[in-house]
Amino acid sequence: MTVAQNIAELRQRITRAAHAAHRHPEEITLVCVSKYVDADLIRQAYDAGVRDFGENYAQGLRDKARELSQLPGIRWHFIGGLQRNKVKYTTGTTHLIHSVHSAALVQEIDRRAAAAGLTQDVLVQLNLAGEATKSGITAEELSPLLESFASCDNCRCVGLMTMPPFFDDPQRAAPYFTRLRELRDQHTSGEHKGVALQHLSMGMSGDFEAAIECGATLIRVGTSIFGPR
Ligand SMILES: *Cc1c(COP(=O)(O)O)cnc(C)c1O
Question: What is the pTM for the complete model shown?
Answer without folding.
Answer: 0.97
